[in-house]
Amino acid sequence: MDKTIASLREAVSGIEDGMTVMIGGFGGSGAPIELIHALIDRFVQTGHPTNLTVVNNNAGNGHVGLAALIEQGMVSKLICSFPRSADPRVFTDLYLAGKIELELVPQGTLAERIRAGGAGIPAFYTPTGYGTDLAKGKPVEEFEGRPYIRERWLKADFALVKAHLGDTFGNLTFNKAARNFNPLMCMAAQTTIAQVSGIVRPGDIDPETVVTPGIFVQGLVEVAEPAQEEALNRANAVYPEFVQ
Amino acid sequence: MNKLNPTQIAWRAAQDIADGAYVNLGIGLPELVARFQPPGRQAIFHTENGILAFGEAPSAGQEDWDLINAGKKAVTLNPGTAFFHHADSFAMVRGGHLDVAILGAYEVAENGDLANWSTGPKGVPAVGGAMDLVHGAKRVAVITGHITKDGKAKLVKRCTLPLTGVQCVTRIYTSLALMDIEDEHFVLREKLSSISIDELQALTGAELHVVGAVADLIVPDV
After folding, report:
1. What is the domain range of residue B174?
2. The model's pTM
3. Interface confidence (ipTM) of the complex
4. Cβ atoms of residues B194 and B218 within 8 Å
5. Is B66 close to A111, i.e. CB distance below 8 A?
6. Cβ neighbours of A24 in B, within 8 Å
7. Average pLDDT, 10 consecutive residues per value, chain B (222 residues)
8. Residue B222 falls within a domain, yes or no?
9. B139: contact with A, CB 8 A cutoff
């Protein structure tokens, strides 16, 4: 078994119009910038994919990564907890113009909905959001005298994630706080593509340190020196046209 | 009017954090609390994006952008750090494992309702982890100016802005006073000696209850 994919282009070739795509990361930390940019390249060349629903904690920052994907007009709906950033203009302008739909989800509920999607649990109850605008229309039930609202699982056609090391079976490790949503999204998508800094042989990763078991990962592509969104933004980078 | 600056409010809040407490600090003003741990006490700070026991900001140029806090600012690590994914992070939050969460506020109502995520229908709404934190931590404290910049009450009978959580706040540190919320009332515990209870009441949108002595709110020049 070898889940290695030779190129970024090939890695994102299965994503079609109208699909739901989970994109890992919290802000720039753990964001699969190169996979996102490969998806933008495909759109620039072919006009597809478009009309995507994207699940991410945020709405991008500056003009690279997720913000660039949104700026291209490829995203029709965003499911996220915090669509603000140092430079959120791309999303903000489209949102205020009514050109992109937003489903705002509390951060812990977003994480648990994704986990539930990956774990085969269609719904769960949480205290988060009870009595707020974000609970409107959701069933309420009392447990041990406290009210909880029902939330549903979240699943995706694809997950694009960033990990540190991956072996050819798809076992993954992550770097520091770049873990965040990535392991959850690996579980919740039909097809998970991980960009990793290095692809190693089975056995080269100590099984005790595997964070995401390979069963949750369908493809791996190596990006030896991945860009950091924060560094790109500090250099005022714009994708597709890099000005550095 | 004599009042505490934001750093002084954070200092006061820090004095109530016990040794060994697990603490989540909201983005912005609450982050200042971490600077003022009393000597001999060690709290462990939690950030939603998956770190326990993170430390101060690195010096410029030393940032590792895989090592950030919930405010997306670079942090460093203290001995004893743990990393974890977002579902575990919010299990810590919702599951009642955090001792204290300290948040900012637009409005706090006398029944403990908190509004701190949306100023109304204009603009882009963003909630982050606030709604999870208010229903998870054992103690939910707010640090805030006592009134808005326009002089309006932030401590009110009922919130007018969209709620973050219902009946969740237990203690409020302001630029003028310290109050607990008990039985759906603001109970005054400490106030600056330079302001009378009547003056404080005039700046508060709901009744201040006095139960026993009101101590002077004494904070160093920080």
Report:
1. 6-216
2. 0.97
3. 0.96
4. no
5. no
6. none
7. 93 97 93 93 96 94 96 94 98 97 97 94 90 95 97 97 97 98 98 97 98 95 93
8. no
9. no
